[in-house]
Write a structure and sequence with these properties.
By secondary structure, the protein is an alpha/beta fold. Helix content is about 35%, strand content about 15%.
Length: about 300
């Protein structure tokens, strides 16, 4: 990644912050719902393959576009983590009264939001699958200046610094990486074209690291309350967050049913990378076993 300084940190359109879409909703028929959560500065597209696969199994799938994702950077960078979580809560409210079983899965920061949902609604969330959970940016592609970021985050400079995304963009698949590179390498900081909706943001506002840190601190204090079954899936060579993130969560949740699944041919965005079919199969298997073991949606299922 390159660190970019901009005196003009993202513009706001005259229309404000119009979202390009509201996410993904696929109606199912088996009485089970799956809430899927994309990552920070990401898009529902990165988790769409999983959603379509679960829907073919009969799940109702709802993948909200997190608050202000798809809006110009000037809007996104001023969004609080509580706003992102509210998008997830709203999705839960959409399905809670019409489905007997509710599962939740999230990618990267989305995994943290999934765990928060399982904590708040512990009597209704039957299982959680955390995909490449990111509590700490400690992957092999962590930039050399990472140790300086805490200084920037707590000064006014946080409003002017951005990460410029560089290869491998969280994916090991070469064709997908090339498509991302074709867009990211030519995108400007004020790019608000429809490609953001498809590929996510080529720039990452450093100020959002402050929000992520606050979210992490809040979640860590809640992990020991979580008793729902928890699955953690992460690539051994995750370029963004190491397997230590999954182990950290595994060691602290109080779930009786919990597992870590390691992948060996993917990077961070495992729902769209080389082993996306394996990821989907593991999640379907995990949710299916919970349903078989607990035929009634009893508290936590853990």
């Amino acid at each position: 990644m390159a660190l970019i300084f901009s005196k003009k940190p993202g513009r706001i359109t005259k229309q404000g912050a119009p979202l390009l879409d509201e996410g993904i909703f696929l109606k199912g028929d088996n009485g089970r719902a799956a809430i899927l959560i994309h990552g920070l500065t990401g898009t529902p597209n990165e988790i769409k393959f999983l959603g379509v696969s679960l829907n073919k199994k009969g799940y109702t799938v709802i993948c909200p576009r997190l608050k202000n994702h798809g809006a110009p950077l000037g809007v996104l960078k001023d969004t609080k983590w509580e706003d992102f979580y509210q998008s997830v809560r709203d999705a839960y409210m959409e399905v809670r009264d019409s489905h007997r079983f509710i599962f939740v899965s999230g990618l990267s920061m989305g995994a943290l939001l999934a765990l928060l949902l399982a904590d708040e609604f512990r009597d209704r969330i039957n299982g959680v699958s955390c995909l490449s959970p990111t509590l700490f940016y400690d992957g092999w592609n962590t930039p050399w200046y990472n140790f300086l970021l805490p200084i920037a985050v707590y000064t006014p400079l946080r409003n002017y610094f951005y990460h410029k995304e560089d290869p491998p963009y969280g994916v090991k698949n070469e064709r997908m990486r090339q498509r991302l590179h074709n867009y990211y390498s030519n995108a400007g900081i004020d790019d608000d074209t429809g490609k953001i909706s498809e590929y996510g943001y080529p720039f990452f506002p450093v100020v959002l690291l402050c929000q992520l840190k606050s979210l992490v601190n809040h979640l860590i204090g809640r992990l020991e309350n979580i008793q729902a079954p928890v699955q953690l899936i992460q690539a051994k060579d995750d370029d963004i967050s190491s397997v230590k993130n999954s182990q950290f969560i595994y060691d602290r949740v109080r779930s009786k049913t919990k597992e870590i699944v390691l992948l060996y041919d993917s990077y961070h965005c495992i729902t769209a990378d080389q082993e996306r079919k394996t990821v989907t199969a593991k999640i379907e298997e995990f949710f299916g076993k919970i349903h078989e073991r607990y035929p009634s949606p009893v508290s936590g299922g853990g």
